[in-house]
Amino acid sequence: MTRSRVVIPPRLLVHLAARSLWLHKLRSTLSILGVVFGVAAVVAMSSVGEGARREALQQIGALGVDTIVVRTKVSAKGEAEGPGLSLRDADSIGAVIPHSQAVAAVREAVLQAETASKRVDVSVVGTTPAYEEAARLALRQGRFLTSIDVRDRKRTAVLGAEIARSLFPLSEGIGETVRLGGDWYDVVGVLEARGSRRSKGGPIRARDVNQVVFIPLPSLDSGPDRRPDGIEEVLLRMDEGRAVTAAAEVVRKVLARSSGAEVEVFVPREILQQTQRTQRIFNVVTGAVAGIGLIVGGIGIMNIMLASVAERTREVGIRRAVGATREDVALHFLAEATLLTTSGGVLGIVLGLIGSIAIQQFAGWTTAISPWMLVAAMTTALLVGIGFGFYPAWRAAHLEPMEALRQQ
Amino acid sequence: MARASRPLVTLNGVTKVYPRGAVSVRALAGVSLEIGEGEFVAIMGPSGSGKSTLLSLLGCLDRPTAGEYWLDGEAVAGLDDVHLSRIRNRRIGFVFQSFHLIPELSVLENVQTPLLYGGVPVPEWPGRAEACLARVGLSHRATHRPSELSGGEAQRAAIARALVMAPRVILADEPTGNLDTATGDEIAGLLHDLHGEGRTIILVTHNEALAAAAQRTIRLRDGRVDS
Predict the structure, then answer these.
(1) Could you identify which of A99, A111, A119, A154 might form a hypothetical disulfide with A181, taking C-beta atoms 3.0 to 4.6 angstroms apart as the criterion?
(2) How far apart are CA A213 and CA A221, in angstroms?
(3) Residues A377, A383, A389, A390: what is their CA dihedral angle, to the nearest 10 degrees?
(4) Residues whose CB falls within 8 Å of the CB of residue A286, separated by 6 or more in sequence, listed in order
(5) Would you call B89 and A8 a contact, using CB atoms and an 8 Å cutoff?
(6) What is the per-residue pLDDT across A118-167, written as a single tens digit (0 to 9) for each?
(7) Which chain A residues have a beta carbon less than 8 Å from that of B96?
(8) How many CA atoms lie within 13 A of B27 on its CB side?
(9) What is the distance in angstroms between the Cα of B30 and the nearest Cα belonging to chain A?
(10) Nearest chain B Cα distance for residue A1, angstroms
(11) Are B95 and B184 in contact (CB under 8 A)?
(12) What is the DSSP letter of B147?
């Protein structure tokens, strides 16, 4: 007699398990509900978390992790709460911060833009040439504002990609003229489109440069701040990302001492780190909820498997009599438990994806699915099946064949 | 009598003690016997005589507490679960009083069950199982469920399952106990035919008429061989 062991091919094990589960469709379905909802909840929740993370990253990425944004503090009504920023503040920031790569003063206004065929309200930014570098703008055509434009208060304009398309749908835009708040401006440049979705009020009001018309700072003499040297924002880009925290501190001090302007200082890098901390907490909570859900699901599986073993004691006896080893019997039941949780996991992922889409659709939150999350959810479901299927399988394997056969 | 040249089954001083809490029950108290290759032997005895225990030991469903058991030249008493299972699969065909078919499976699938544990390639299953069903005259019931069979048919299906791995020994435990006399005679006739084909048959019964069909009767009383 050969001593080599007979190993049942996995394909057969799965086939037998599937048949046996199919015979008890209702029971099998009920038993996996826990796993289904557990996995679905994890998938949906983490898609919300992942979506928030990506959105924050994108917003902050658009500003750049090496930038600092200083803005005049405004009340809820949009009015300045105290003395606002002035051009002098921008100069002193530029002079005091040692590693600044670019410092740009910004004045904003919403003006009516008119072309030969169109008339729309656009957001106009009056700024200096440094803005191009500070905000990492890329030009598709033409040039950005120059110091001559600023010095001579030239009527030149650089258009964001989308605004260029909507104002001049038929031409490239460059060389055209646009009337802004009554004055005609020459379009000297059009920006490259920048991939950023409309953000719904994140931690920073990131300017969507696709929608903006840039003109020389002195040319924009209307806006919320009526002072001739008043500005709304100073955008500062450091030559090294790590320097931003210290630089932001210096900015606050300088402004407090020199002008007493009421400002808010945004440091995208710090907000990013804060977001990541929040994200980690969210992940831990999601993980805990997922764990509890899957344990509950696993207990459901174990319960059903124990009932199944009790009900099929005689079958176990028969299989043992015709040559099944303890291990074979255990494998039969383990295969069933694993198949149950695997199908529960797959259904849960499908349900979770539907839930994620529904959340995006109805709650308006951005959701995103990371493939790793799906792998993790599936693996956990599988481990739950094996883990909680183990005891029932062990019980079945250790039934005494003769006693099992005697049971009716 | 056709006592074969070499014994297929040899028991030597086999005892079986079941622990029952503080006291232990001695079900077999030193049983020695030999059954030759190709013999048809009936094991008889009143209830409580140790018949069932002997059956489970002979069938390798349990291990003796002490003593030796040789099956086809192999010492079985000390084997582990994997080897005992293999012996049950390859060398022993069981026929039970209450048929013990798996109710969820068709007759054909029931007959195929031992092939799964014998490592027989799946493509061979239907052929082998159908041949065995043909042998017991049940080909027309292959796709039926056990619940759709008469008692006699169910026992034929069980015999087909016992034959499918071509074992040396058929171990029948009161095979006619749940059948009426006419059907019981049919099953007895079938066992007789199988013996005629050279198989060793061990029949456990307390039915004298059935035992009379055997070549030899071993009687048990109080856990010992009586005669």
Answers:
(1) A111
(2) 15
(3) -170
(4) A42, A45, A46, A49
(5) no
(6) 888 999 999 999 998 888 888 898 999 999 998 888 899 999 988 998 88
(7) 405
(8) 20
(9) 21
(10) 9
(11) no
(12) G
The domain made up of B40-61+85-217 has a fold known as Rossmann fold (3.40.50)
Is the alpha carbon torsion for A299, A301, A307, A312 positive or negative? negative
What tokens does A79 get? 């009015």
A232 SS3 class: coil
Residues of A in contact with B61 (CB under 8 A): 320-321, 401-402
Q: What is the pLDDT of residues A200-210, one digit of tens each?
A: 444 455 678 88
- Asked if B81 and A318 come within 8 Å (Cβ–Cβ), the reply is no
Three-state SS for B204? strand
Quick check: A395 contacting B, CB < 8 Å?
Answer: no
**Under a CB-based contact definition with an 8 Å cutoff, are residues A298 and A338 in contact?**
no
Distance of CA A72 to the CA centre of its chain: 29
Alpha carbon separation from A136 to A65, A214, A251, B138 (Å, rounded) = 11, 14, 21, 85
Residue whose tokens read 């481990």: A383
Tokens 């031409």, located at residue: A171
ipTM, 2 dp: 0.94
Tens of pLDDT along B52-62? Answer: 899 999 999 99
| Residue of B61, B114, B116 lying closest to A12 (CB–CB) | B116
Q: What share of chain A is helix, strand, coil (3-state, %, to 5)?
A: 55, 20, 25
Looking at the DSSP bridge assignments, the partners of residue A114 are A119, A179
Amino acid occupying residue A2: T
Contacts of A323 in chain B (CB under 8 A): 85-86, 88-90, 114, 117-118, 165
Q: Whole-angstrom Cα distance, residue B223 to residue B50?
A: 5
> Other C-beta atoms within 10 Å of A5: how many?
12
Q: Which helix (H) or strand (E) holds B224?
A: strand B224-225
Share of chain A above pLDDT 70, in %: 91
CB-based contact A86:A232 (threshold 8 Å): no
Using a CB-CB cut-off of 8 Å, the residues of chain A touching B122 are: 12
Query: What gap in Å lies between CA B90 and CA B102, rounded to an integer?
Result: 20
Domain boundaries, chain A: 10-59+274-406, 74-261
d(CA A66, CA A54): 18
pTM: 0.74
Instruction: Answer whether A402 sits within 8 Å of B86, measured CB to CB.
Output: no
Name the residue ranges covered by the structural domains of chain B.
40-61+85-217
Option in A8, A314, A326 nearest B81 (CB): A326
Tell me which residue has tokens 């007895």: B188
| 8 Å CB contact of A402 and B88 | no
pLDDT, tens only, B137-183: 999 999 999 999 999 999 999 999 999 999 999 999 999 989 999 99
